[in-house]
Amino acid sequence: MIKADNISKHFGKVKAVDNISFEVKEQENLILLGTSGCGKTTTLKMINRLIDPASGNIFINGKNIADEQPEILRRGIGYVLQNNGLFPHYTVAENIAIVPNLLKWDKKKIAGRTAELLEKLHLSTDYLHVYPNELSGGQQQRVGLARALVSDPPVLLMDEPFGALDNVTRANIHKEFKALDELKRKTIIMVTHDVQEAFELGNRICLMDKGKIIQSGTPADLLFKPADKFVETFLKDQRLQLEFKAIRLTDIWELLPDQHTKGNSTLSADTDVWTALENFKFVNAETINISKGHNQVKTIGFEQLMAAFNQYKNKQRHE
Ligand SMILES: Nc1ncnc2c1ncn2[C@@H]1O[C@H](COP(=O)(O)OP(=O)(O)OP(=O)(O)O)[C@@H](O)[C@H]1O
Ligand SMILES: [Mg+2]
Protein backbone atom coordinates (compact mmCIF):
# COMPACT_ATOMS: atom_id res chain seq x y z
CA MET A 1 0.00 0.00 0.00
CA ILE A 2 2.92 2.34 0.80
CA LYS A 3 6.28 1.94 -0.87
CA ALA A 4 9.38 4.08 -0.36
CA ASP A 5 12.00 3.51 -3.03
CA ASN A 6 15.56 4.71 -2.32
CA ILE A 7 14.52 7.98 -0.73
CA SER A 8 17.05 10.51 0.60
CA LYS A 9 16.91 13.92 2.20
CA HIS A 10 19.92 16.00 3.18
CA PHE A 11 19.97 19.20 5.21
CA GLY A 12 23.27 20.84 4.26
CA LYS A 13 25.87 18.27 5.20
CA VAL A 14 23.50 16.24 7.41
CA LYS A 15 22.22 13.11 5.69
CA ALA A 16 18.93 13.05 7.58
CA VAL A 17 17.60 10.18 5.45
CA ASP A 18 20.15 8.29 3.42
CA ASN A 19 18.78 6.18 0.59
CA ILE A 20 16.22 4.02 2.37
CA SER A 21 13.51 1.72 1.01
CA PHE A 22 10.61 0.01 2.73
CA GLU A 23 7.10 -1.23 2.08
CA VAL A 24 3.98 -1.28 4.21
CA LYS A 25 1.16 -3.68 3.42
CA GLU A 26 -2.49 -2.78 3.75
CA GLN A 27 -3.63 -2.76 7.40
CA GLU A 28 -0.11 -3.34 8.62
CA ASN A 29 1.48 -1.35 11.43
CA LEU A 30 5.08 -0.51 10.53
CA ILE A 31 7.30 1.02 13.20
CA LEU A 32 10.21 3.34 12.50
CA LEU A 33 12.44 2.81 15.52
CA GLY A 34 15.69 4.55 16.39
CA THR A 35 17.51 7.04 18.57
CA SER A 36 17.06 10.81 18.39
CA GLY A 37 18.16 12.36 15.11
CA CYS A 38 18.25 9.14 13.06
CA GLY A 39 15.75 10.49 10.51
CA LYS A 40 12.39 9.12 11.65
CA THR A 41 10.40 12.37 11.50
CA THR A 42 11.99 13.37 8.19
CA THR A 43 10.95 10.00 6.71
CA LEU A 44 7.38 10.39 7.95
CA LYS A 45 7.10 13.94 6.63
CA MET A 46 8.14 12.82 3.16
CA ILE A 47 5.16 10.44 3.03
CA ASN A 48 2.61 13.25 3.19
CA ARG A 49 4.81 15.75 1.34
CA LEU A 50 5.55 18.09 4.22
CA ILE A 51 9.07 17.49 2.90
CA ASP A 52 9.92 16.34 -0.63
CA PRO A 53 12.77 13.83 -0.98
CA ALA A 54 15.93 14.97 -2.75
CA SER A 55 15.95 11.66 -4.60
CA GLY A 56 13.86 8.51 -4.74
CA ASN A 57 10.12 7.93 -4.98
CA ILE A 58 7.20 7.17 -2.70
CA PHE A 59 4.12 5.32 -3.91
CA ILE A 60 0.76 5.01 -2.19
CA ASN A 61 -1.56 2.46 -3.80
CA GLY A 62 0.76 2.35 -6.79
CA LYS A 63 0.56 6.12 -7.42
CA ASN A 64 3.69 8.24 -7.20
CA ILE A 65 2.86 10.89 -4.59
CA ALA A 66 5.12 13.41 -6.37
CA ASP A 67 2.40 13.57 -9.06
CA GLU A 68 -0.32 14.38 -6.57
CA GLN A 69 -1.39 17.70 -5.11
CA PRO A 70 -0.22 17.76 -1.49
CA GLU A 71 -3.66 18.96 -0.29
CA ILE A 72 -5.46 16.09 -2.04
CA LEU A 73 -2.86 13.54 -0.92
CA ARG A 74 -3.20 14.62 2.71
CA ARG A 75 -6.96 14.02 2.72
CA GLY A 76 -6.24 10.31 2.66
CA ILE A 77 -3.60 10.48 5.37
CA GLY A 78 -4.10 11.15 9.08
CA TYR A 79 -1.01 12.65 10.70
CA VAL A 80 -0.29 12.74 14.42
CA LEU A 81 2.54 15.22 14.92
CA GLN A 82 5.42 14.79 17.35
CA ASN A 83 4.42 16.73 20.54
CA ASN A 84 0.79 16.53 19.32
CA GLY A 85 0.93 19.79 17.30
CA LEU A 86 -2.47 21.06 18.43
CA PHE A 87 -3.26 24.68 17.62
CA PRO A 88 -3.09 26.47 20.99
CA HIS A 89 -5.63 29.15 20.06
CA TYR A 90 -8.21 26.58 18.87
CA THR A 91 -10.44 24.69 21.30
CA VAL A 92 -10.46 20.89 21.34
CA ALA A 93 -13.58 20.85 19.13
CA GLU A 94 -12.03 23.34 16.70
CA ASN A 95 -8.80 21.38 16.51
CA ILE A 96 -10.67 18.19 15.67
CA ALA A 97 -12.87 19.99 13.12
CA ILE A 98 -10.00 21.31 10.97
CA VAL A 99 -10.12 18.60 8.31
CA PRO A 100 -13.94 18.20 8.33
CA ASN A 101 -14.21 21.95 7.70
CA LEU A 102 -11.84 21.66 4.75
CA LEU A 103 -14.04 18.84 3.46
CA LYS A 104 -17.10 21.06 4.00
CA TRP A 105 -18.92 18.66 6.30
CA ASP A 106 -22.04 20.17 7.87
CA LYS A 107 -21.98 21.11 11.55
CA LYS A 108 -24.14 18.21 12.65
CA LYS A 109 -21.93 15.60 10.99
CA ILE A 110 -18.81 17.15 12.55
CA ALA A 111 -20.36 17.24 16.02
CA GLY A 112 -21.56 13.65 15.73
CA ARG A 113 -18.23 12.29 14.55
CA THR A 114 -16.36 14.30 17.20
CA ALA A 115 -18.56 12.96 19.99
CA GLU A 116 -18.10 9.41 18.69
CA LEU A 117 -14.30 9.74 18.67
CA LEU A 118 -14.11 11.34 22.11
CA GLU A 119 -16.06 8.42 23.50
CA LYS A 120 -13.84 5.85 21.80
CA LEU A 121 -10.74 7.64 23.07
CA HIS A 122 -12.15 7.98 26.59
CA LEU A 123 -12.20 11.76 26.68
CA SER A 124 -15.11 13.54 28.32
CA THR A 125 -17.18 15.89 26.13
CA ASP A 126 -16.64 18.44 28.92
CA TYR A 127 -13.32 19.15 27.24
CA LEU A 128 -14.82 20.13 23.88
CA HIS A 129 -14.58 23.84 24.52
CA VAL A 130 -11.32 24.08 26.44
CA TYR A 131 -7.93 24.98 24.96
CA PRO A 132 -5.07 22.45 24.64
CA ASN A 133 -2.99 24.05 27.41
CA GLU A 134 -5.78 23.23 29.87
CA LEU A 135 -5.34 19.50 29.17
CA SER A 136 -2.81 17.02 30.50
CA GLY A 137 -0.16 15.66 28.12
CA GLY A 138 -2.04 12.40 27.75
CA GLN A 139 -5.31 14.16 27.01
CA GLN A 140 -3.61 16.34 24.41
CA GLN A 141 -2.25 13.25 22.70
CA ARG A 142 -5.74 11.74 22.57
CA VAL A 143 -7.04 14.92 20.94
CA GLY A 144 -4.16 14.75 18.44
CA LEU A 145 -5.20 11.19 17.63
CA ALA A 146 -8.87 12.20 17.31
CA ARG A 147 -7.90 14.98 14.91
CA ALA A 148 -5.97 12.52 12.74
CA LEU A 149 -8.79 9.94 12.74
CA VAL A 150 -11.79 12.21 12.24
CA SER A 151 -12.20 11.79 8.47
CA ASP A 152 -11.38 8.06 8.71
CA PRO A 153 -8.38 8.17 6.33
CA PRO A 154 -7.01 4.79 5.17
CA VAL A 155 -3.44 5.74 6.09
CA LEU A 156 -2.24 6.98 9.47
CA LEU A 157 1.20 8.44 10.19
CA MET A 158 2.03 8.82 13.87
CA ASP A 159 5.14 10.57 15.17
CA GLU A 160 5.86 9.45 18.75
CA PRO A 161 2.15 9.63 19.59
CA PHE A 162 2.68 8.39 23.14
CA GLY A 163 6.04 10.06 23.70
CA ALA A 164 5.09 12.42 26.50
CA LEU A 165 3.44 9.82 28.73
CA ASP A 166 4.54 8.13 31.93
CA ASN A 167 4.84 4.34 31.80
CA VAL A 168 1.54 3.55 33.49
CA THR A 169 -0.52 5.86 31.29
CA ARG A 170 1.37 4.65 28.24
CA ALA A 171 0.64 1.01 28.99
CA ASN A 172 -3.07 1.86 29.32
CA ILE A 173 -3.13 3.79 26.06
CA HIS A 174 -1.34 0.90 24.31
CA LYS A 175 -4.13 -1.43 25.39
CA GLU A 176 -6.79 0.97 24.13
CA PHE A 177 -4.86 1.52 20.93
CA LYS A 178 -4.78 -2.19 20.18
CA ALA A 179 -8.48 -2.52 20.93
CA LEU A 180 -9.67 0.33 18.68
CA ASP A 181 -11.57 -1.09 15.70
CA GLU A 182 -10.97 2.04 13.65
CA LEU A 183 -7.24 1.45 13.77
CA LYS A 184 -7.42 -2.18 12.73
CA ARG A 185 -8.51 -1.27 9.23
CA LYS A 186 -5.78 1.32 8.76
CA THR A 187 -2.33 1.17 7.29
CA ILE A 188 -0.13 2.75 9.92
CA ILE A 189 3.44 3.99 10.09
CA MET A 190 4.38 4.88 13.63
CA VAL A 191 7.58 6.47 14.88
CA THR A 192 9.04 5.71 18.29
CA HIS A 193 12.37 5.51 20.07
CA ASP A 194 10.89 3.11 22.63
CA VAL A 195 11.79 -0.54 21.97
CA GLN A 196 8.99 -1.91 24.16
CA GLU A 197 6.43 0.18 22.33
CA ALA A 198 7.76 -0.92 18.95
CA PHE A 199 7.48 -4.59 19.94
CA GLU A 200 4.07 -4.15 21.47
CA LEU A 201 2.40 -2.31 18.60
CA GLY A 202 4.34 -3.20 15.45
CA ASN A 203 3.74 -5.94 12.90
CA ARG A 204 7.11 -5.06 11.45
CA ILE A 205 9.91 -2.78 12.59
CA CYS A 206 12.47 -0.72 10.65
CA LEU A 207 15.38 -0.06 12.97
CA MET A 208 17.17 3.11 11.81
CA ASP A 209 20.52 4.67 12.58
CA LYS A 210 22.06 7.82 11.09
CA GLY A 211 19.57 8.07 8.24
CA LYS A 212 19.81 4.41 7.23
CA ILE A 213 17.65 1.35 7.87
CA ILE A 214 19.85 -1.16 9.66
CA GLN A 215 17.26 -3.95 9.72
CA SER A 216 13.62 -4.35 8.90
CA GLY A 217 11.62 -7.36 9.97
CA THR A 218 9.19 -8.76 12.51
CA PRO A 219 9.99 -8.32 16.21
CA ALA A 220 11.10 -11.98 16.24
CA ASP A 221 13.43 -11.38 13.26
CA LEU A 222 15.17 -8.55 15.10
CA LEU A 223 15.52 -10.62 18.25
CA PHE A 224 16.60 -13.93 16.80
CA LYS A 225 18.18 -12.95 13.49
CA PRO A 226 19.82 -9.58 14.24
CA ALA A 227 21.48 -8.13 11.13
CA ASP A 228 24.53 -6.95 13.07
CA LYS A 229 25.97 -5.90 16.44
CA PHE A 230 24.07 -2.60 16.36
CA VAL A 231 20.72 -4.40 16.37
CA GLU A 232 21.83 -6.73 19.16
CA THR A 233 23.06 -3.87 21.32
CA PHE A 234 19.92 -1.83 20.69
CA LEU A 235 17.73 -4.61 22.11
CA LYS A 236 20.09 -5.89 24.77
CA ASP A 237 18.79 -4.23 27.93
CA GLN A 238 15.22 -5.39 27.47
CA ARG A 239 15.92 -8.63 25.71
CA LEU A 240 14.15 -11.09 28.00
CA GLN A 241 10.94 -9.12 28.25
CA LEU A 242 10.94 -8.55 24.48
CA GLU A 243 11.31 -12.28 23.93
CA PHE A 244 8.39 -13.02 26.23
CA LYS A 245 6.26 -10.61 24.20
CA ALA A 246 7.47 -11.65 20.74
CA ILE A 247 6.89 -15.40 21.22
CA ARG A 248 3.37 -16.77 21.14
CA LEU A 249 2.05 -19.98 22.63
CA THR A 250 1.37 -21.27 19.13
CA ASP A 251 5.12 -20.87 18.35
CA ILE A 252 6.06 -23.19 21.21
CA TRP A 253 3.01 -25.48 20.94
CA GLU A 254 4.95 -28.55 19.80
CA LEU A 255 7.33 -28.18 22.76
CA LEU A 256 4.57 -28.22 25.35
CA PRO A 257 3.60 -31.56 26.92
CA ASP A 258 0.54 -33.23 25.46
CA GLN A 259 -1.82 -33.48 28.42
CA HIS A 260 -5.26 -32.19 29.20
CA THR A 261 -7.16 -31.68 32.44
CA LYS A 262 -10.58 -30.10 32.37
CA GLY A 263 -11.75 -27.16 34.41
CA ASN A 264 -8.87 -24.70 34.15
CA SER A 265 -9.05 -21.17 32.85
CA THR A 266 -8.33 -21.26 29.12
CA LEU A 267 -6.12 -19.03 26.99
CA SER A 268 -5.96 -18.92 23.20
CA ALA A 269 -2.69 -20.14 21.66
CA ASP A 270 -2.43 -16.71 19.99
CA THR A 271 -1.53 -15.28 23.40
CA ASP A 272 2.09 -14.20 23.90
CA VAL A 273 4.22 -15.87 26.56
CA TRP A 274 4.35 -12.70 28.67
CA THR A 275 0.56 -12.58 29.00
CA ALA A 276 0.43 -16.32 29.72
CA LEU A 277 2.97 -15.91 32.54
CA GLU A 278 0.95 -13.05 33.99
CA ASN A 279 -2.12 -15.26 33.80
CA PHE A 280 -0.65 -17.70 36.31
CA LYS A 281 -0.41 -14.85 38.76
CA PHE A 282 -3.78 -13.43 37.82
CA VAL A 283 -5.84 -16.60 38.24
CA ASN A 284 -3.54 -17.86 40.98
CA ALA A 285 -3.57 -21.37 39.48
CA GLU A 286 -1.01 -24.16 39.24
CA THR A 287 -1.96 -24.90 35.67
CA ILE A 288 -3.74 -23.20 32.80
CA ASN A 289 -5.30 -24.56 29.61
CA ILE A 290 -4.32 -23.41 26.16
CA SER A 291 -6.59 -23.94 23.21
CA LYS A 292 -5.49 -24.05 19.61
CA GLY A 293 -7.84 -24.21 16.65
CA HIS A 294 -11.19 -25.89 17.26
CA ASN A 295 -10.36 -28.82 19.44
CA GLN A 296 -6.74 -28.94 20.59
CA VAL A 297 -6.22 -28.20 24.28
CA LYS A 298 -3.11 -28.57 26.43
CA THR A 299 -2.81 -28.13 30.18
CA ILE A 300 0.48 -26.60 31.28
CA GLY A 301 2.21 -25.51 34.45
CA PHE A 302 4.50 -22.52 34.90
CA GLU A 303 7.70 -24.56 34.71
CA GLN A 304 6.59 -26.40 31.60
CA LEU A 305 5.89 -23.09 29.95
CA MET A 306 9.33 -21.73 30.84
CA ALA A 307 11.03 -24.93 29.66
CA ALA A 308 9.27 -24.81 26.27
CA PHE A 309 10.10 -21.10 25.96
CA ASN A 310 13.80 -21.74 26.59
CA GLN A 311 13.93 -24.68 24.21
CA TYR A 312 12.28 -22.58 21.52
CA LYS A 313 14.83 -19.77 21.99
CA ASN A 314 17.73 -22.19 21.73
CA LYS A 315 16.30 -23.62 18.54
CA GLN A 316 15.88 -20.13 17.05
CA ARG A 317 19.47 -19.21 17.80
CA HIS A 318 20.83 -22.32 16.13
CA GLU A 319 18.71 -22.19 13.02
N1 LIG B 1 14.55 21.45 8.87
C1 LIG B 1 15.76 20.97 9.17
N2 LIG B 1 16.87 21.69 8.91
C2 LIG B 1 18.10 21.21 9.17
N3 LIG B 1 18.35 19.99 9.73
C3 LIG B 1 17.29 19.23 9.99
C4 LIG B 1 15.94 19.67 9.75
N4 LIG B 1 15.09 18.69 10.13
C5 LIG B 1 15.86 17.68 10.60
N5 LIG B 1 17.18 17.99 10.53
C6 LIG B 1 18.29 17.12 10.93
O1 LIG B 1 18.10 15.85 10.32
C7 LIG B 1 18.40 14.80 11.23
C8 LIG B 1 17.18 13.91 11.38
O2 LIG B 1 16.14 14.61 12.01
P1 LIG B 1 14.73 13.97 12.37
O3 LIG B 1 13.86 15.03 12.90
O4 LIG B 1 14.24 13.22 11.17
O5 LIG B 1 15.15 12.94 13.50
P2 LIG B 1 14.25 11.99 14.45
O6 LIG B 1 14.72 10.61 14.21
O7 LIG B 1 12.82 12.27 14.23
O8 LIG B 1 14.69 12.44 15.91
P3 LIG B 1 13.82 12.58 17.28
O9 LIG B 1 13.68 11.20 17.84
O10 LIG B 1 14.69 13.43 18.15
O11 LIG B 1 12.52 13.21 16.95
C9 LIG B 1 18.85 15.46 12.51
O12 LIG B 1 20.27 15.49 12.51
C10 LIG B 1 18.29 16.87 12.42
O13 LIG B 1 19.11 17.77 13.11
MG1 LIG C 1 11.33 13.08 15.40
TrEMBL record:
<feature type="domain" description="ABC transporter">
    <location>
        <begin position="2"/>
        <end position="235"/>
    </location>
</feature>
<dbReference type="GO" id="GO:0005524">
    <property type="term" value="F:ATP binding"/>
</dbReference>
<protein>
    <submittedName>
        <fullName>Osmoprotectant transport system ATP-binding protein</fullName>
    </submittedName>
</protein>
<dbReference type="InterPro" id="IPR003593">
    <property type="entry name" value="AAA+_ATPase"/>
</dbReference>
<dbReference type="Pfam" id="PF00005">
    <property type="entry name" value="ABC_tran"/>
</dbReference>
<dbReference type="InterPro" id="IPR003439">
    <property type="entry name" value="ABC_transporter-like_ATP-bd"/>
</dbReference>
<keyword id="KW-0067">ATP-binding</keyword>
<dbReference type="InterPro" id="IPR027417">
    <property type="entry name" value="P-loop_NTPase"/>
</dbReference>
<keyword id="KW-0813">Transport</keyword>
<keyword id="KW-0547">Nucleotide-binding</keyword>
<comment type="similarity">
    <text>Belongs to the ABC transporter superfamily.</text>
</comment>
<dbReference type="InterPro" id="IPR017871">
    <property type="entry name" value="ABC_transporter-like_CS"/>
</dbReference>
